[in-house]
Amino acid sequence: MRQVKVGVIGCGHIAQEVHIPNYIQNPKSKLEAICDTNQDILNEVAMKHKIKHVFNDYRELLNSGLVEAVSVCVPTSLHSKVVIDAARCGIHVLCEKPLATNMKEADEMLEAVSRSGVKFMVGFNRRFLPNHLKTKEYLEKGKIGRPILARAQMITTGPYGNEIEKSSCPKEAEKRMGSLFDSGSHLADLMIWMLGKPSAVSASISTHEDEVGVDDSAVVSVKFENGTLGSICVAWLDLPDYQAMEDSRKIEIIGTNGKIESDCLGPSLYFYSTNSLISKLRGKIKITPVKFDPKIPHEALSWSYKKEIDDFLTSIIKNREPSVSGEQAKEALRLILAAYESIRSKSVVTFKTR
Ligand SMILES: NC(=O)c1ccc[n+]([C@@H]2O[C@H](COP(=O)([O-])OP(=O)(O)OC[C@H]3O[C@@H](n4cnc5c(N)ncnc54)[C@H](O)[C@@H]3O)[C@@H](O)[C@H]2O)c1
Questions:
Q1: From the CA of 120, how far away is ligand 1's center (Å)?
Q2: In this predicted structure, what is the pLDDT of residue 163?
Q3: What span, in angstroms and rounded, lies between the C-alpha atoms of 139 and 77?
Q4: Hey, which of 31, 45, 119, 332 would disulfide with 189, CB 3.0 to 4.6 Å?
Q5: pLDDT at residue 354, as a whole number
């Protein structure tokens, strides 16, 4: 089997939890090199996974001739610089989400990857959750009729809970990126993927823990071009029992003939349709498209990361486009930036039809 030679740039939380182990486990890839400016992290990760080639400067990794693809797992404010340099070296890129911090960076990244012809994917892993894929399929088949209302809500511990040491949020917060930017970008991507482009956005943010210095809760109202009205609600909370919030993290879409509730982190969705005999007999039914071991926490989420990495590798091997494109990631960024702009200007931000 053809193996893609890969490198990982930035060896923090998401690289250690997702990219590095998945590249090692996937038979389609060979992890050749890693890079981090932090020598301690670099040594620790290289030793743990027996990785021979290590770099402090990502440009040296790109020019080493060791890799044909990289994951970009540096903080978001550095994505554009690294992605553009990788594309100029003819190296395929899987870039973590969100795409960038502003539209200028995003445009420059997309221009660089398009000019070089490399594969470019953005890490919106939630799309690979089997329940979200089923939700999209049901929407496309018209199983709940025409979507009228959509609500996406996600509660995470953000920088407050016991994940504080590992989370990127405090560092991202230094760059003025709060819960809306960090968690909201996943929901923005899922909503656009399921419902199409937005036409108008307004938002409110709040900060309940002053020391974080950025928004730790946000509500965004979105009108989509297809007429659906939606909302995106996110909050970072310090929760002793995170599982108790399970019911509060979902995407709920109500249509003219029914509704779908899809768990943000998987694995299930609830479905009700006035056209379905099962719904008539049993009301709202629970569907779990792929069964996971309930004893393994967030196994569905791990699966979504595994699928994301596999999709990227397959796109290189089979020379097809990856499932999450840079253009799509730019639409999610546009929505989030418009939400912040609405807060700044205290007005509804409308999009020109494109
Ligand atoms: N898909 C998801 O669910 C998800 C989850 C968490 C984070 N992320 C994204 O992943 C990215 C990284 O987040 P994280 O939580 O891993 O952050 P992190 O701070 O834990 O890791 C970032 C690493 O990059 C290194 N770094 C910084 N500048 C560098 C440079 N110039 N060259 C090489 N290495 C450099 C840092 O030393 C650090 O080890 C962010 O864009 C974040 O939004 C995505």
A1: 18
A2: 46
A3: 35
A4: 332
A5: 62
Strands 198-206 and 349-350: antiparallel
305 domain residue, yes or no? no
In a domain, 195, yes or no: yes
Q: Output the pLDDT for position 165.
A: 42
Q: Which residues of the chain have pLDDT under 50?
A: 162-166, 173-174
How do the residues of the chain divide into helix, strand and coil, expressed in percent and rounded to 5?
40, 25, 35
| Residues 225 and 249 reside in one and the same domain | yes
Cα 175 to middle of ligand 1, angstroms: 13
What separation in Å is there between the alpha carbon of 274 and the centre of ligand 1? 45
Residue 338 within a domain: yes
Do residues 57 and 198 share a domain? no
Say what the pLDDT of residue 164 is: 41
d(Cα 8, Cα 312) in Å, to the nearest integer?
14
| Ramachandran angles phi, psi of 69, nearest 5° | -150, 150
Nearest protein CA to atom 15 of ligand 1, as residue: 168
Tokens of 82: 């690294």
Q: Which of ligand 1's atoms lies nearest the C-alpha of 79? A: 41
Q: Return the pLDDT at 161.
A: 60
List Cβ<8 Å contacts ≥24 apart for 220-224. 220/180, 220/184, 220/188, 220/335, 220/339, 222/191, 222/198, 222/335, 223/198, 223/199, 224/150, 224/191, 224/195, 224/196, 224/197, 224/198, 224/199
Tell me how far the alpha carbon of residue 92 is from its chain's centroid.
19
**Residue closest by Cα to atom 6 of ligand 1:** 14
